Amino acid sequence: MTSDSTWAAGPGETPAIPNPPPEAPPLTPTEVPPAPPVESPPDEEPVGIPTEPPPELPPNAPPEGPPATPIDLPPARDPRQPQE
User: Fold this and answer.
1) pLDDT confidence of 44, banded at 50, 70, 90?
2) Model's pTM, two decimal places?
3) Gap between the Cα atoms of 65 and 83, Å rounded
4) Which of 16, 56, 60, 73 shows the greatest Cβ crowding within 10 Å of its Cβ?
């Protein structure tokens, strides 16, 4: 086992404090770490939900058939009769 002089105990056998890296100086309790850099907004509009209909559909075209309703039944079928 080898001893490293950077981890040597201080005076009075107190634990040694390692040296901080040069790119991150220690902060005092009243200091706030710097904010990350702000990214610039994109130059073009992001791709999302289209606001216009696709070109193959005519604008405001009526539906091909009437909308279905909950009471629609297959042809030639009578509605159920309530049971007594």
Assistant:
1) confident
2) 0.18
3) 34
4) 16
